[in-house]
Design goal:
The chain has 337 residues and is of the alpha/beta class. The chain is 38% helix and 16% strand. It has helices at residues 13-21, 35-48, 69-75, 82-87, 106-109, 144-154, 161-174, 185-196, 201-209, 214-225, 242-247, 260-263, 295-300, 318-332; strands at 25-28, 56-57, 90-94, 119-123, 134-137, 228-230, 235-240, 270-278, 281-288, 304-305, 309-315. Helix 2 packs antiparallel against helix 7 (161-174) and helix 7 (161-174) runs antiparallel to helix 8.
Length: 337
């Protein structure tokens, strides 16, 4: 007989103890934060930023996408300054697999910003490098927001409607609308609990799925126009150059979900999106379907991520990087034949 209570990962006591011990912590997610990164970090700040704690969020200028700005507005929070980093007594890093990917800003990236202070690393990326002093990594979890939900429940921290909305946003988007294999019974149970706790499903559905700004629509038009099919039709990719991105009214922070365009083509098992958010550096989003995994391919180019959703940033012109990666992708996909 099946249990009515789906199994969820146990939260290590040391994670709860370490977070509650901090008095002036900073939450950090990855560069170009998506809904899971933003939702998990904002929910952590709101939930643990009480009882005299001065909990702030690292969110450098230009790192918040137009589409997700409403989540930040929903939360209401304080952005960490350089002075806050200097006096912080610890850091909670969420949804970030490598320390070099932490969204602390260009100036702090050149320094040892943690400087011996404790780093608590909470993530669901299989390739996480365990760079924290305390690491809670659950590679088969659907999202980091799902892990933060378990954390709040274990710590007996009340889940407010705002926090419920933030966590639901991350779970819903990182499972691609509850459609990926990472959508477990536990993830659905968590989502249901968050709805009962006041998550605004109607608002989230409208803003995340049905509210494109003109600039985002123009960028999507570029991605559709630039989509190419490779070989026998099992590989597809698209691209957007620096000028195309900025002429559309967007920035590097607005690049993410457009990978769904080449991925949506029938028969495509490996999809890629090449974007030049800054000149001289090309970001690659990799997605796999069926039995095709992409994290190993991404790691060949210095990146990482999940089994079927990964990314990398490669120095070089857009044309150079596309040619090099497509050449390798044609060989790589043969092992899944």
């Amino acid at each position: 007989m099946q249990s009515n209570a789906p199994t969820s990962p146990a939260v290590p006591d040391e994670v709860i103890e370490a977070i509650t011990r901090l008095r002036a912590p900073i939450a950090i997610s990855h560069v170009v934060p998506d809904a899971d990164a933003l939702g998990s970090s904002l929910a952590t700040v709101l939930s643990f930023g009480s009882d005299g704690r001065d909990f702030k969020l690292a969110l450098p200028d230009g790192s918040l996408s137009q589409r997700l700005a409403f989540l930040a507005e929903l939360a209401g929070f304080s952005i960490a300054s350089a002075d806050d980093f200097a006096r912080a007594d610890g850091f909670v890093v969420l949804d970030t697999a490598k320390k070099k990917r932490c969204n602390v800003g260009a100036d702090l990236k050149q320094t040892d910003w943690s400087a011996g202070r404790p780093v608590i690393n909470i993530d669901h990326h299989e390739g996480n490098t365990r760079f924290g002093d305390i690491n809670w990594i659950v590679g088969d979890a659907g999202s980091t927001c799902e892990l933060v939900f378990y954390l709040l429940r274990a710590a007996e921290v009340p889940i407010t409607p705002a926090v419920a909305s933030l966590l639901y946003a991350g779970i819903q988007t990182d499972t691609l609308g509850f459609s990926l294999p990472s959508t477990t019974a536990a993830a659905l149970h968590a989502a249901a609990f968050l709805i009962e706790s006041g998550a605004d499903v109607a608002l989230l559905g409208e803003r995340l799925g049905r509210s494109q700004r003109k600039s985002e629509f123009e960028l999507l038009r570029v991605v559709y126009a630039n989509t190419k099919i490779v070989g026998e039709g099992d590989i597809a990719y698209s691209f957007a150059g620096y000028d195309e991105i900025h002429d559309a009214g967007c920035t590097a922070a607005d690049i993410d979900d457009q990978i769904s365009v080449p991925r949506s083509l029938d028969g495509v098992r490996l999809a890629m999106l090449f974007t030049e958010g800054r000149k001289g550096a090309t970001r690659i989003n990799f997605r796999g379907s069926g039995d095709v995994t992409v994290v190993d391919l991404a790691s060949e180019f210095g990146g990482g991520g999940h089994s079927q959703a990964a990314g990398a940033v490669v120095d070089g012109t857009l044309d150079e990087v596309i040619a090099k990666v497509i050449r390798r992708a044609k060989e790589y996909i043969k092992k899944f034949s």
